[in-house]
Design brief:
- The protein has 334 residues and is of the alpha/beta class.
- It has one domain: TIM Barrel, CATH 3.20.20.70.
- Helices cover 29% and strands 19% of the residues.
- A twelve-stranded mixed sheet has the order 9-10-11-8-7-6-5-4-3-12-13-14. The chain has a two-stranded antiparallel sheet with strand order 1-2.
- The two termini are 28 Å apart.
- Bound molecules: S-adenosylmethionine.
- S-adenosylmethionine binds next to strand 5 and strand 7.
Length: 334
């Protein structure tokens, strides 16, 4: 077993796995309603057996211990609950850190089984605490389902339990302090995420609000106490005296954190993606190798190691990001 290291000396040990491009919400910043997406057919995505084999290669050959399932909506469509249950032997042998990022709409019924299968890290996306606004942002009347899942997940003891909130000017930036208040007596980490441009998501500067602006709004009322510096941590984390919850900022656009990048991604097409913002044509289709008998796990590991040397030091600046085509969050998974 060896570490997977890119040409800049960054150790890669965190796999983000988008299991499907299908989603039951239509969030304005992610899956725009007028975007005629060609959703993948089942055979264009990895089967559970192929996903397990690929994850096994990362775990056994390269000491990957952190796996996060995302999508699309990982709990919609494909049987992610089974996939995670089938991961248990690998988890028991290698001590994996298994996470899932979900919109929470279908989560409540699965919380127990996910916990039993070893999921510890749960990120739930929630961009508004107001039912009507939630509906406007997501296109669906599912606020209660998400809120019920958040509250139950906290009660069951998922730790850390994170809420991902993409902040957009004029849309939900008036709720920043309410979100902070929401975690006052809850063991929840509220993470304010900068709005990023993706194909067709109508990103514009007018709707962008930087993490410093968000932080300023909070600091008018609270003293934020920084903690937990970790080079590969994407969030800047803060305590507030007397608050149970944690407040974090993810500044992908205004202050990137590529230096400490430890991530690789598998897209819903089963392709290896080196960076959230790398052009789609650079992705490496792993299906070809997984579906051809002649490639052993060791050979696939060598192919991955070779490809990883193309990982760039930092993602392009905003003007270049805006030109990227077919860079779809549903396929990449965030
Ligand atoms: N469906 C799941 C969910 O909603 O959490 C997982 C997939 S979603 C693409 C993963 C994360 O990406 C979510 O937390 C979502 O808020 C975030 N995201 C999607 N589009 C984004 C954008 N344009 N800018 C910033 N974050 C975004």
């Amino acid at each position: 077993m060896k570490k997977l290291v890119d040409k800049f000396g960054r150790v890669l040990d965190y796999l983000r796995f988008s299991v499907t491009d299908r989603c039951n919400l239509n969030c304005v910043y992610c899956n725009p309603r007028d975007n005629k997406l060609n959703l993948l057919k089942d055979h264009e995505m990895l089967s559970n057996a192929e996903s397990l084999r690929l994850i096994g290669i990362f775990v056994k050959h390269f000491e990957f211990r952190k796996i996060r399932f995302t999508g699309g909506e990982p709990l919609a469509g494909k049987n992610i609950v089974n996939l995670i249950a089938e991961l248990k032997p690998l988890h028991e042998s290698y001590g994996l850190d298994i996470g899932i990022t979900t919109n929470g709409t279908l989560l409540k019924a699965h919380l127990d089984s996910l916990k039993q299968s070893g999921v510890t890290k749960l990120n739930i996306s929630l961009d508004s605490l107001d039912k009507d606004k939630f509906c406007k942002i997501t296109g669906k009347d599912k606020f209660e389902s998400v809120m019920d899942a958040v509250l139950l997940a906290e009660e069951i003891g998922f730790q850390p339990l994170k809420i991902n909130c993409v902040v957009m000017k004029g849309i939900n930036d008036d709720e920043i302090l309410e979100f902070v208040d929401f975690v006052k007596n809850r063991n929840i980490n509220i993470r304010f995420i900068e709005y990023m441009p993706f194909s067709g998501n109508k990103w514009c500067e007018g709707k962008f609000i930087s993490y410093m602006e968000i932080k300023d709004i909070i600091e008018k009322k609270f003293r934020l106490i920084a903690f937990g510096e970790n080079n590969s941590e994407v969030a800047n984390n803060y305590h507030i005296a007397g608050y149970k919850g944690i407040v974090s900022f993810i500044s992908s656009i205004s202050n990137h954190f590529c230096d400490g990048c430890n991530r690789l991604r598998i897209t819903s097409e089963g392709s290896l993606k080196l960076c959230l913002f790398s052009p789609k044509y650079q992705d490496l289709d792993m299906k070809n190798y997984l579906r051809t008998d002649s490639f052993s796990d060791t050979e696939i590991a060598e192919i991955i190691e070779h490809k990883v040397q193309d990982k760039v030091l930092m993602h392009p600046d905003i003007s270049e990001l805006l030109k990227l085509e077919k860079n779809n969050m549903l396929s990449i998974g965030g």
